[in-house]
Amino acid sequence: MATLSSPLRVCRGILKELRAIQGPSYKESLAYSYVMDQFRKNKVTGERYCRAQQEAHHDSHTYLCLLQSTRNHLYLHKLYHGKGERSPDEAAGLVGLRMPTQPGGKGWEK
């Protein structure tokens, strides 16, 4: 298993995703207060080595990955979602191609 980033970095990443979803008033949301409460409750101390803290850190890292993946999915879905029937020129341009033109000027091409 790959090493997890620090709990502070994961917490900041989750808060960044919440800010992207909810806007500037994210600090008043229930999700913000729950995330901060969980990170404060599972703070690592030098006195003990607890498996529950590692599990909480892993869960938070997984939640951050879920939030980032959901945001990326929505962005890609919005970008590439079908907008009805497209002309052949638009469909070719979507994948980076151009439609061929008829040489000699028959009068029907653009």
Descriptive account of the structure:
The protein has helices spanning 7-22, 30-41, 51-80, 88-94. By secondary structure, it is mostly helical. The protein is elongated and about 80 Å long.
Structure keywords:
110 residues, mainly alpha, 59% helix
Helices and strands, in order, run as HHHH
The chain-level mean pLDDT equals 81
Instruction: Give the count of helical stretches.
Output: 4
- Major β-sheet annotation: none
Distance between the termini: 57 Å
**Shape descriptor:** elongated
Poorly predicted regions are none
Summary of the model, kept short:
By secondary structure, the chain is an all-alpha fold. It contains four helices and no strands.
Question: How is the topology of this model organized?
Answer:
Elements: H1 7-22, H2 30-41, H3 51-80, H4 88-94
